[in-house]
Write a structure and sequence with these properties.
Order of helices and strands: HEEEEHEEH
Number of helices: 3
Strand content: 25-35%
CATH topology: Aspartate Aminotransferase, domain 1
Largest sheet: 6 strands, antiparallel
Radius of gyration: 13 Å
Number of domains: 1
Distance between the termini: 31 Å
Helix content: 25-40%
Shape: globular
Number of strands: 6
CATH architecture: Alpha-Beta Complex
Amino acid sequence: MAYDEALAARIRELVGRGKGVTEQRMFGGLAFLINGNMAVAASGQGGLLLHVDPAEGAKLTRSAGVEPMVMRGRAMDGWLRIDDEAVRTARQLQRWVDIGVAYARSLPAKR
């Protein structure tokens, strides 16, 4: 399944095209990076992949439609999968994009 291009466009609007913002295909989707750190991605499996502070991950999974990202059978600390229903409205999407962007901006720039 290809990533949802309409969702990617909605994310792009929220992330912007400022200094340090790049896009890159990864995880079968389109990721938005801040200074080389992934913030959020339109997932190839639908919905979002979100990079969050690992200390906040468990709390965030209490929200409907949110679960830890699993890779090769293992839950990944600091990575969440947000389903389509949880990003249906502009307000829902804004919440998740803001969380991912804030976390990515808090990390040291990758070179």
